[in-house]
Amino acid sequence: MSQFPPLKKGDFVIMVMFLLRIITFMTIWDNIYKNKKKSSDTWATPSDRFYTVFKKFLDRSDFKIKHVLDIGCGVGKYLKILQSEGFKTDGMDSSETAVEMTKKLLGDDSAILCTDMFEFEITKDKYDLITSILTIHHGTKRQVQCLVGRIYEAIADDGKIFITVPDYESSKKWDSFKNHKEVAEGTFVPLLGPEKGLPHSFYTKEEIRKLFSNFKGLMLDMDNQGNWIVQASK
Ligand SMILES: C[S@@+](CC[C@H](N)C(=O)[O-])C[C@H]1O[C@@H](n2cnc3c(N)ncnc32)[C@H](O)[C@@H]1O
Question: Is ligand 1 within 6 A of the CB of residue 76?
Answer without folding.
Answer: no
